């Protein structure tokens, strides 16, 4: 064999050996990225818990949004044939994809806005309540995050050419804020009484309508006085650190009167029963004179 031919064949063989590892290392996807953002419209997902009857109750509401962004470019002679955005956390599933038919893309740039309502947040209720039970404070709003209370997402890309298939996948998370509200102010007891200064059988008669309120913490509230004939009056009072506050209304009657009163605390499920305020001027009981000691009716 001529020396020139032998040299040419040796050069071709050497070239083939050196190119094989380079071909095997080619990646068909470049500049790939996937991310989830919870700052869309400054309204990140949140679970809000409020103490009620010694237990944290969740507010079953939610109107939040999350932005999911998946992008990539093909490399060399490949094409992007498949892509998916999936929620992998509890209650999740497919969010967006290329569908059943294969794609043939040189570049991929997809942004999806996912709406987060109670139907998705409910899957984290139990874990969120546990966070509040551990970190909540009776007089202070607490906002916490936990690795157990978060949305999880994945972005997937597949690219092909005639000789091979490459796949790329990345995970990302969006925390759910757990908001533990302080114990709300509540009026939890009210007592109403009528006291006469002197005898209710001898006019003029002085009477006092007195109400005593108890609350679970300092706060301001409004209550309504109902009179038996339909008249009403609204009054505002503030309970301080002592936990109680009272209200008194004074009357003077110059003739017989038959009334009744009831108090209801506005915005709180608490009220008294009807309390009578009855004055019988000049009447005697069983032939005896009217009593002179103060007469009190308490409820």
Question: What does this molecule look like?
Answer:
There is one protein chain. This protein has 299 residues and is mainly β. It folds into 2 domains: 28-180, Immunoglobulin-like, CATH 2.60.40; 187-298, Immunoglobulin-like, CATH 2.60.40. Helix content is 12%, strand content 51%. The protein is built from 3 helices and 20 strands. It has helices spanning 3-24, 118-121, 125-135; strands at 29-37, 46-52, 55-58, 64-74, 79-87, 93-97, 107-116, 142-144, 150-160, 165-175, 177-180, 187-197, 205-215, 219-227, 232-239, 244-253, 257-266, 270-271, 275-279, 296-298. The strands form 5 sheets. Strands 14, 15, 17, 18 and 19 form a 5-stranded antiparallel beta sheet that branches. Strands 3-2-11-8 form a 4-stranded mixed beta sheet, covered by helices on one side. It has a 4-stranded antiparallel beta sheet with strand order 6-5-9-10, with no helix packed on it. Strand 14 (219-227) and strand 15 form a beta hairpin. Mean pLDDT is 85; it is low at 1-25 and 285-299.
């Amino acid at each position: 064999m001529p020396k020139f031919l032998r040299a040419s064949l040796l050069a071709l063989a050497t070239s083939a050996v050196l190119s094989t590892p380079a071909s095997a290392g080619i990646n068909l996807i470049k500049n790939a990225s996937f991310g989830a953002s919870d700052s869309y419209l400054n309204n990140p997902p949140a679970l809000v818990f409020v103490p009620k009857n010694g237990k944290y109750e969740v507010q079953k509401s939610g109107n939040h949004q999350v932005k999911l962004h998946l992008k990539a470019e093909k490399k060399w002679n490949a094409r992007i044939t498949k892509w998916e955005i999936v929620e992998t956390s509890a209650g999740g599933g497919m969010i967006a994809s290329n569908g059943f038919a294969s794609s043939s893309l040189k570049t991929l740039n997809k942004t999806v806005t996912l709406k987060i309502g109670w139907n998705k947040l409910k899957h984290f209720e139990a874990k969120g309540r546990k966070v509040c039970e551990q970190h909540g404070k009776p007089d202070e709003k607490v906002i916490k995050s936990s690795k157990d209370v978060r949305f999880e997402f994945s972005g997937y890309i597949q690219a092909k050419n005639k000789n091979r298939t490459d796949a790329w996948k990345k995970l990302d998370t969006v925390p759910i804020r757990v908001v533990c509200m302080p114990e709300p102010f509540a009026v939890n007891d009210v007592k109403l009484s009528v006291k006469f200064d002197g005898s209710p059988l001898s006019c003029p008669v002085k009477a006092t309508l007195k109400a005593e309120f108890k609350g679970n913490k300092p706060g301001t509230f409004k209550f309504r006085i109902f009179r038996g004939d339909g008249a009403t009056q609204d009054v505002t009072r503030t309970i301080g650190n002592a936990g109680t506050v009272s209200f008194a209304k004074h009357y003077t009657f110059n003739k017989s009167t038959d009334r009744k009163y009831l108090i209801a605390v506005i915005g709180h499920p608490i009220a008294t029963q009807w309390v009578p305020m009855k004055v019988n001027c000049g009447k005697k009981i069983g032939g005896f004179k009217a009593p002179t000691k103060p007469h009190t009716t308490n409820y």
